[in-house]
Write a structure and sequence with these properties.
Elements (H helix, E strand, L loop, with lengths): L21 E2 L2 E2 L3 E6 L3 H6 L6 H4 L13 H10 L3 E5 L9 H22 L4 E3 L1 E2 L5 H15 L3 E4 L2 E2 L2 E2 L6 H10 L2 E4 L4 H5 L11 H4 L1 H15 L2 H4 L4 E4 L11 H9 L20 E3 L5 H11 L4 E2 L12 H6 L6 H15 L5
Parallel strand pairs: 3-4, 4-5, 6-7, 7-10, 10-11, 11-12, 12-13
Antiparallel strand pairs: 1-2, 8-9
Helix pairs in contact: 5-6
The structure holds zinc ion.
The site of zinc ion (ZN) has 5 residues, from strand 3.
Amino acid sequence: MLLFGPRISPQDQRPAKHAPVLINGRRVKAVDVHAHIYVPEVAEMFQGTPLEHPAAGGGAIDRDKYLSSERIRKMDEMGVDVQALSVNTFWYSLDRDKATRLIDLQNRRVAEMIQAANPERFVGFASVALQFPELAAQQLEEGMKRFGFRGAAIGPTCGAEELSSPKFDPFWAKAEELQALIFVHPQDSAKATGITARVGGNGDLDNVIGNPLETTIFLSHMIFEGTLDRFPNLKICAAHAGGYLPSYPGRMDWGCYVTPERCQKPIKKKPSEYLKQIYFDSLVFTPEGLRHLAAEVGASQIGLGTDYPFPWSEAPVDLVMQTPELSDADREAILGGTMCKLLKIPS
Ligand SMILES: [Zn+2]
């Protein structure tokens, strides 16, 4: 039984179409940077293999996995003008040949699905084989130049490797060169964070704790290993509002003061300052959560995120409009101003 439901504008009370999103009487384009898509042919490719479930989009609601008219109707209901689509990663264990074939098919089909549905309502992130960083850099470039993708969607780890390892620098260098937006989203997070043995039982803890924790660990390594110093113009957008990191950034500033012997690698800024060079989605559920996120990272660093077709956020525009501490400029940036610039969407 569901004990707690959405706190803002439950779906069954909303009209079929959201009122136009206006700030000071001016129409603002609302852009959802966190929405998923799956490719049916890829699901077929992995049928009967251990990757069958993630290739098919895990538990995503069947009719909304693809770019159906139902999806556009739901976007209208939420007031979302454009979704930036990503496929959740599951392919980092594949060999080079299989990974190449998967990425070629997936990127081509996602681009075709966007064109067939409505390229004014959807933009895409490329999939890349991050286990081969040079290949991933090529796939990113090809995805942007050939298919019009605005960046790439990646997981926060690659097998057992942290993405702050210099091994991945060729990918980060290409992303910075192309000014690609790199959307980072958890994958198999309980395993990736090592908490599998502790998150069984009631409450879906591998998701509700594991997903934010995986992103938190990723961002922390990118800060403390100096990756964000090496690539200061890299555009990273962290899913689920960056996990726990923006809720508790003061601790990473104090850590090196308390135990300097464990902070031998110099970085250029105070650790929490790096949050202001990262982007985050708005998936924090409450006006107080959004107020705090904006206070820590800056409203200019936040874009709407729904996790569609997973029902984690059903009124993303209303959350922004109902957060009293945000200024009009803050609201405009979060609703779509920042993501229009990063994703090169005409505003
Ligand atoms: Zn998601």
